[in-house]
Amino acid sequence: GDSVTQMEGPVTLSEEAFLTINCTYTATGYPSLFWYVQYPGEGLQLLLKATKADDKGSNKGFEATYRKETTSFHLEKGSVQVSDSAVYFCALSAYILTGGGNKLTFGTGTQLKVEL
Amino acid sequence: EPEVTQTPSHQVTQMGQEVILRCVPISNHLYFYWYRQILGQKVEFLVSFYNNEISEKSEIFDDQFSVERPDGSNFTLKIRSTKLEDSAMYFCACRSSAAMSTDTQYFGPGTRLTVL
Fold first, then answer.
1. How would DSSP label each residue in A30-83?
2. Which residues of B touch A43 (CB under 8 A)?
3. Is residue A112 scored above 60 in pLDDT?
4. Which of A27, A90, A93, A97 is the most exposed place for a label (fewest CB within 10 A)?
């Protein structure tokens, strides 16, 4: 079945450091890929997404490129801020022709802590 | 911005009791989901719901679980006889269309269920 593997946390960085959170996936067909973020006490929010190979999703300074050849979707940000402290989830959705399922398959989440 | 709401935010129950978790999805969305996250583990898909019926369900979603959209606005998850291992954070999500898997799922803040 489909699966997502992402790096273990917590990741602790100083403000303005470069961030990479690795994500690889296994899926049949051509899934769409997502990064969701969960701030303390809140729900999951979509951060960015990519729908096909070589697409780059970007939002709030975060970027991720859909790499079919390496089955990866690594999250990057050039300069993190304290306000980026949260848990980041990589996920995929495989298109289903009928029934409207399209469930998300998540990775385990990576906690990011950014310190001054 | 429209948002998904869930009540209660925290539910404590005794093993064997029935619980109902409630969600109010975004008003014009048609596809609804429940996910859960056991502490320290992955976010797992439970069930998807469309046109008043279940589209897809996971192995976790056994006969003890049921979902309902009783009044056109609420979307509920019922656990008939709770077990200790049902303790988790339960997330409701919704999506506006099923045209493509790229359509974003919007998540609620979650209900933390504790079974004693």
1. --EEEEEEE-TTS-EEEEEEE-STT-EEEETTEEEE-BTTTTB--EEESS--GG
2. 4, 6, 91, 107-110
3. yes
4. A97
